[in-house]
Amino acid sequence: MSPNRSGYTFRAFFFGSVFVAALAAGAPYGNMVLRGSYLTQDFSTPGALFLFFALVGVLNALYKCVFPRGGLVRAEMLLIYSMMLIASAITTCGLSEYLLPIMGSWLYFATPENNWDDLFHSYIRDFLVPDDPQAIKHFYEGLPTGAQVPWEVWLGPVLIWSALIVAVYFAMICVAVILRRQWIEHEKLIYPLAQLPLDMVRDSDQYRLPPFFKSIGMWIGFAIPCLISSTNAFHNYFHVFPQIQLSSSIDLFRDSVHLPVVLSFPVLGFAYLINLDIAFSLWFFNVLVNVQKGLYGLLGVTSGEALDTFSVNPPAIAHQEMGALIVLVVFTLWVGRGHFKNVCRKAFSNAPDIDDTDEILSYRVAVWGALASLCFAGVWLWLSGMPLLVAALFLVSAFAIFVAMTRIVAESGVPESRTPMMPQSFVTSSIGTASVGETGITALGFTFTWATELRIVVMTSAAHALKLLDGQQGRHRPFFWALMLAVLVSMVSSLWVILDLSYSYGGINLNRWFFGGGARSPFESFVARRLINPAGPSWEGWFSTGIGASIMGGLMLARHYLIWWPLHPIGFPIAGLWLMSHSWFSIFLAWVCKAIALKYWGPRGFRAARPFFLGAILGQFTSAGVWLIVDAFTGMTDNRIFSW
To answer: Helix (H, G, I), strand (E, B), or coil: what is residue 252?
Structure first.
């Protein structure tokens, strides 16, 4: 069987759709009904890796034992995994579990005390939301006995939102195509999150069971998180079992700053794969920014500005890191200017010397597709009530953040991260609420449906899916259709399941965040706050943005021109995130382990220990997935053994 056999077969698309539907339906059920481990919340995509392990290490291997010449080939399995990557970015935190609750929270959580009715209800365009108050009430509280799910009430608004969302996702995939060659071939970013699935299928066409699953070191690493997680899971069933705590904290600055000390096996495993200077940057800047927060508290440095629930606090640090993020995007464009010039030559004049046959879209389609999709999105946002220039600024800000986060994850491999400032707050803080207007602020609030936490983004998933294609022969245009198929299947499956479960159980009885604080937050901490307290541009915020941009610019220039410069800048834009505070210790441990391995045993020592750390990642995700299945059969709830 040829190792270069195409992955673009009917069975690959079929099984990819099946796995996507299972992930899209299973993930909301897991965190809404079972209230267990989250498997589609972060860039690490635990659910996709768990199902890929079941596919490669169990199902396909067993099939090959019965039919030695059968089974899926490597390219087919990577296509299936790529589709699951896209689904992971849509199913829960990325879209679906924010979209539906936010579409109803403006009405359900309106009370005489918060005065939402008078504040902004009149600014909401009718096509954005369901028009049946009883349907919204039952969505949150459950249907009366014998009543049917009012699908027709949701169909129109969901289709209208889907038009915007599919256009935005298509634009994200187009941008990922434009960036692919620069990042993979020219800059040679290592994409740490893509290394585990690639290792799992390496030489899989020559063996019934890939060599990855024959490594003793991998199984040792796999067993440790499995044993710890299973012990904690058994504790939730039978309290006679001990509970193993893997977290503590260090209190700093008179207990005003709490620095978590958490052992996360996935973070430990992914951090071992990255360069030492990048790992040092990630944990060093996080500790440094926590010290900065403590000093601000001691010195009484405060800000009267309020951003939103999802942005970094205090606002000065959010602006500081946003400035760093902007510089990262600008520097990325500057370094790749030669490649981007070639892309434009191919897109606008069909330059014959530029070869784009190995891309999943031609550069002409990618560039014009991205521009057309963004124009459509801008008009859509304008129709929703946003001034046209504000819509343009919001889309530019959002896509700059998407590119920056994709770059950070591709280079540093952080499995859990997000932007320091939401694009909605960046817009209102930059130009003031008066320039946005009451209707514009309300429309911006509704964009939290698809641009909320940004802990997982379709552009990042698409970029890693393209990395999985690296080295495969042939034309890859069908790969694009696989990604778009994953978008549609995951949206339909997850939205259908969430609606069905919400009306069956009542959303507020299922998940306290997605149907509670997360659903209220866009209107509570963003829309209402800005309508009650209108403000002009935040010059204090711009000052902090300038400081962050200056520091980041200096770090990047030093890194680019000074060979001896030891400090990598990649950790600075995300240093203030609480997710990084929960990750810094595991990254520090991985940095120490890798430094020792390289110092005393060289590259051979690093390679010898690598399967152990990959196994630690897979063991944690597999145990989380297996226990969700066990809980589904036993009816156990709140057995969460993995959170980040």
So the answer is: strand
Q: Are 344 and 364 in contact (CB under 8 A)?
A: no
Best CA proximity match to 590, nearest among 287, 228, 227, 267: 267
- Give the DSSP letter string of 512-549: TIIIIIHHHHIIIIIIHHHHHS-----HHHHHHHHHHH
The whole-angstrom separation of Cα 168 and Cα 188 is 27
**Do the bridges between strand 257-262 and strand 247-252 make them parallel or antiparallel, or are there none, so unpaired?**
antiparallel
Amino acid letter, 217: G
Residue from 10, 2, 6 nearest 473 by CA: 6
Location of structure tokens 């983004």: 457
Nearest Cα to 103, choosing from 163, 160, 63, 146? 160
Flag the least confident range among 102-106, 158-162, 294-298. 294-298
Tell me if 620 sits within 8 A of 228, measured CB to CB.
Answer: no
- 8 Å CB contact between 7 and 75: yes
- As a whole number, mean pLDDT of residues 313-342 equals 96
Would the CA dihedral through 344, 349, 351, 354 be positive or negative?
positive
- Quote the distance between the C-alpha of residue 170 and its chain's center: 16
- Which one, of 390, 448, 624, 429, lies nearest residue 539 by Cα? 429
> 133: burial class by Cβ within 10 Å (0-12, 13-18, 19+)?
exposed
Whether residue 176 has pLDDT greater than 90: yes
Rounded to 5°, the CA angle 139-144-147 comes to 90
Contact call for residues 305 and 322 (beta carbons, < 8 A) = no
Rg of the Cα trace of the chain? 24
Tracing tokens 């997982």 back to the chain, one arrives at: 456
Torsion angle, alpha carbons of 394, 182, 588, 253, to 10: -30
> Of 417, 397, 395, which is closest to residue 407 (Cα–Cα)?
417
What pLDDT, on the 0 to 100 scale, is given for residue 595? Answer: 97
